[in-house]
Records
---
Amino acid sequence: MIGKIIVKEIRELFKKSTLIAMIMMAVLFAYLGKTMSGFEDKLKEKPKISVINHDKGEFSNIFLLKMEENAKLIIVEEDEETAIKTHPNNNTSLIILSENFTENIKNGEKGDIKVYYFLEGAGLLNSFSTSAVRGVLHASAIPISDSLIIGASNAEPNIAREPIMIHEITHLKGRSFNNIAPKLLNEIIRSQTGTVPILIMMLIVISGSSVIASMGVEKEDKTLETLLSMPVKRSDIIIGKIIGSAVVGIVFAGIYMIGFKYYMDSSVMYSIDPASHGLTLSIRDLIMGGISFFASLLAGLSMCMVLGAFTKDYKASQSMVFPITLMAMFAMFLSMFMDLNSMPTILKTIYLIIPFSHPMFALREMMFGNITIVIYGIIYCMIFFAIMIGISVWIFNSDILLIGKTTWFKKRK
């Protein structure tokens, strides 16, 4: 008897649609993991650093010889301006030793080094490859420090211990940020936009699950049949369900995000003012972000309405939530760890197909003036919403809504 009950539960919960969705998302996550492991392999390699040496003196030679032990050096013969313009944005660096590097150190001053970081994107993984550069620079200064101490120079103790002065300049999305390291720049960007992917993921999961669950409950209680027998347009029923679920999701997500924002504001402090570097969002950006947010929410919930139509009862509706949850989590993790510019083509295509991925990167792109891609995302979400509404209306006018499955492939007796 127990065996029959177990088989019955498995049959009710183990649906083909759920299995297909799980396999597809498993493949996507496996591909995402493979991509991230590729980043890890790059981190294990020596960083590639382009070098312009204007000094040619004793200490600059010592410095570069030590750098060759920890990095792959590319000696650049071009002038600084040309080298910056032609350098690719591929998470590599360019260092420039000033022409009086050796002379300054011998005179008891620090040797000046400019470091240009060229980031491919604003994701967490994009700054990892450049984080090793600063360590290489400090390690390369150790022989100079030893030479000053052994030679009993007249340098001050703090100069002897740290004989170089590093000026960091980060290039990202066509803009330059003076005296800001990539790690700090990414932290500032995340403080402005990092909570958005979490908010979208929670909102889609909460609202989407309520849409699908309500369809299952109404079928189980036979209230859906009563609703369909009333003189109400099918489109009004669909839009009413979507907007109602959206309101509930916004309220729950808003409560969560209020607490989360207080946590972020109290735990994040910076030595610079983000506004002085243009790393803030304008009223226009927030309005466009809100429109993108609302459009993606409508698109996501309309997709949930289609999935909910194939449920037979409340228990079956729980399995339909998995595809939405997995897609939301996939988009959230990808938005946090990678940037649109640094994603592989296949991964980027899959990411952009998911409608609720667009507001996850919208604010970050608008912070750098890239509003066009946000507008295209809003248009895509509204087209997706219209298509899903059309499919939902068709389903509501067919027998699929009441029986929870199609009869397309059944053989006629």
---
Amino acid sequence: MRCRWRGPQGGVLVHRNNTLRLRPTFRGAAGSERGLVSFLALGFAVLFSGTAARLLGAAPSVHPTVEAFGGGCIPRHSRDSRFLARGRALTAPEPEKLTVGAVWATKPGSRPASKAGHPPPTRLRPEYNRLRRAFEVMRAAVTPVSSPRLPRPVRRSTRPDAAAFLAALAPLDVYLYAHSGRILFKRPLTTEERQHLADNCQSLDVHRHGQWIKDASGAFRQLNIFPFREQVQLVGANRVALAYLASRDDRIPRGNGALPKRDRQPPLIIYLEIALDIILANEQILREAFAAFKRCFVQLWNGKNESIEFDNGGMSTGRRWNGKYLSAYISKPSPVTGEVDCLHIEYRICSARAVRAVGIASIADLLAFDFRAFWQKHLVLRDVDIARLGRHSLNKRFGKRRQEPGPDDRRTGQVLWRAYAYDKSGSLCVQALIQNYGSGPFLKNIPIAHFLPSSGENALVS
């Protein structure tokens, strides 16, 4: 049986007796040049491989069915041909097969097995792939089979990772305080009271019930705070202002001028910002610390809220009207001392229910609040063990409980980290990995004791 296929480079593939042979043709100017060059290159590969085999002491024997014309004979259906294409060294050939330099053929009369009587599949490869395989066979014939393969060098980054940088970071000073808050009152503030509060805080805004205000998104809405009458927003209030509001009587006199015996609706805190200022040495350390913080910070029970990055370089774990989220930035000086190289982190607690869940039910509770205990619970920094992540995934996939490290652990972990750790803004962070992949024993806690002052030190209201 003899069949012909016209090749893409001006050659003819001839199928005869279970072998494929590439016979160059010389038709046309371009085809003649390519065919002649390919013919000479393949012939040189065959001759050189046979000469190298003789120098190494091998005695090649030519089989009757082997035809070394043009590119030589290539197995039509052989599992070993796929190994040749991958560039792997061959082991000792089977008795019915034969190796002659760059030529490989099957035993006369043998036919590869086929399924259900169908002819075996034929894979037609371009001419340059034939040449590459011939050189691979030549290299396998010259190189001893017993020579071990040298391991590929693993390139490691000399830059310290984010976890090591945060663990070794030494801040100059740390401040804990309540930065901003909104409080609802039933009895409106007088002019003297407003002036006293304005003198003891950085900013004071007062809005009445039913007034049209502009919210954070830029839209106008009507303020509805019934049964309260005024909403007071304080920014940077000190202890003098908060102590005055805590002692202020908010009961409304009755028609006869008498006050009720008890206040059924005390002043309500509906919004609160608890801040942490970390003062660093210079701007370069500040930027590296902020990048490491964005990568390693984790907000517990964050759900599917994705992290957000702003134009000024700040970040947030997801704005919402109910609950709490974290925001951080380095573009402004410290609100307390005015120091420039400041990493400002603040937890924004929205709704009265979320404020009470933190442990602040009144203004007096805010004065006695333990800021250090709050940040010990909510400042969570974690790092990912890449090798442990890969081992965790492989054990989960194959149903094993392997604890010792394996050769594929780190590579699998790197693939999972790149696939699941990108957030909405295109940055790698642990928070995105937890949301997309999940948590597990591959997460390591980063110590935060050096980010918090000792008990009672620098714990300010403002």
---
Amino acid sequence: MVNRWAGVTIDCVDVERVAGFWSVLLDRPQGPSEPGWVYLGHRDDPQP
């Protein structure tokens, strides 16, 4: 059996700042977003 991460949610006050930090750290671009949410990468990315 293989496990796969589907996503991680981090609750924070400054969404853009925290997303920018993780984007640089993980070398993942910010993908499609909604108000109060920022996604790193895209659903079909081969990396988690």
---
Amino acid sequence: MMHEVDLYGVLISPLLVCFVAAWVTSQFVTRALERVSFYRFVASRQLFDLATLITLTGFFALVFFGLENRL
């Protein structure tokens, strides 16, 4: 069962927590890909960044909800 995250009395959806973690990670991935000039091989940088963010959100949700179900 999904439980909300309590942040100083404010209940936050666990999916929002996963999204924020994915967004922060996505920023680091974007900077690393810029540094190695990866984006010259990508047709649409914005679409690639969005796909990266969605993939990382799914990964964090899988890890967060998967660990929660085992406890």
